[in-house]
Amino acid sequence: MSDVTRIAEQVTTALGGSANIQDIENCMTRLRIGVADQDAVDAAALKAVDGVLGVVEDQTMQVILGPGLVDEVADEMGRISRTTVRMEGADSAVPEEQAADGPGASGLTASQLAARGDEIRTERKRANQTPLRNFLRRIANIFLPLIPALIACGIIAGLNGVLTNLTVKGITPWAAGITPALGAVASGFMSLIAVFVGMNAAKEFGGTPILGGAVAAIIPFAGIAKVTVLGQALAPGQGGVIGALLAAVLAAFVERWARRWCPRSLSMLVVPTLTVLVAGLVTIFVFMTLAGWISTGIGSLANWLLESGGAASGFVLGGLFLPLVMFGLHQALIPIHTTLIEQAGYTILLPVLAMAGAGQVGATVAVYMRAKHNASLRNTIKSALPAGVLGVGEPLIYGVTLPLGRPFITACVGGAFGGGFIGLFDQLGTTVGSTAIGPSGWALFPLVNGARGIGAAALVYAGGLLVGYLAGWAATYFFGFSKEGLAALNASEADEQRSDLIGAELDPQA
Description:
Layout: H1 3-14, E1 21-26, E2 30-35, H2 43-48, E3 54-56, E4 61-64, H3 69-81, E5 85-87, H4 110-127, H5 131-143, H6 147-168, H7 179-191, H8 193-204, H9 209-216, E6 228-229, E7 232-233, H10 240-261, H11 267-308, H12 311-326, H13 333-344, H14 349-353, H15 355-370, H16 375-389, H17 394-404, H18 406-427, E8 433-434, E9 448-449, H19 454-479, H20 483-489, H21 493-506
Helix pairs in contact: 1-3, 4-17, 5-8, 6-7, 8-9, 8-10, 9-10, 9-11, 10-11, 12-18, 15-16, 15-17, 15-18, 15-19, 16-17, 17-18, 18-19
């Protein structure tokens, strides 16, 4: 039996068997699995599967496997459970729910630290079940399925940019015939992204996807330029994904309202017509103008933050991103990133926020060096660190820094310094952006771009990672532990076992 088959079978069993699996969504590093009965899931057995890097217990179970392996396991689980596997979006730089505040070293071995991490994660999950955060999750569900296409088009756009520059300099004259084709491949999706947002939004809010897409398609339609609102002609694409989101949500509500009173015999004609007509007219005369103002404001604010605030803004953004995730508010950034990509071709916020992951890597290395006698924790770090470097932060956060408490805070300090470094260069005119959302760490390199080209952006991003690593390491190594906490962390497992045996012998009830 191959490792893939073994993992798929064990995960399926721990989830309550094939009959308990309703749907499987496959993204870059994790599986999101809908289950019929959450009480039938054996979370402990799921976490114990060799190859599973982490588990997020939520309304949808999330099983973290890492890049590459997740695709193979998803296909095998789909075959075992006879469930269609859907490709979803990529993971963000950090997990979907975290806590930034631990009580200190509550355990000594890797298993004890992981148990504490699970406790904190459960507490945060319970605290995050608010109407606002549930709404933000729904917004995230609209944009996450678009991430694979954003990544693909972003990488192709970067390749096309390199070839175009080399062709202009006479280095690759043979590429002159292929760059227009690559440009079309890279830009086609972005020209119609409003339609895809509309379809996903309608589905998420209980409407028919194709009707949401039909209403959102008004926004990029070239003929919209003939319409005048408040004395101004509308422009194709005005309002972008935000306008499409508003249009599709309205379409879903109109459709559901119409179905409540429309006779079944007429619903095929009346409901879709009324939905597209009402939502379409409101989109043209209200949403496109309103969303256009919002989109312009988002772009102006983001540029102002990093062009004017520079290092200070980057420091704050990089340092506070993980606490923002802790409160479940990071999902509000997804449409902002998408809007910036739609406007400028890249989002300048994501590389700054990705520095939070660099701080985690540096902090974890410091923990490894300080925990000289804790073999189980060092083994956990060695297995999880490569994934952390590539931007998969869950194993490091839930298994190392978060349950230790103070190292999580010092990791945020590392992220702040990395963000400040990139913010400084943004202020100096060397902007660093990402042409897609999802990847972070080293996985973001193929997607970086900026005002001075891919090469300059990649160099600054690499410098930010290095600063984040070093600052996270230094802050954790020198300030990440109290004397008592460090002593407890380095107590050997043999000593712990002997202490347990002595305690049992002294306990008259043992």
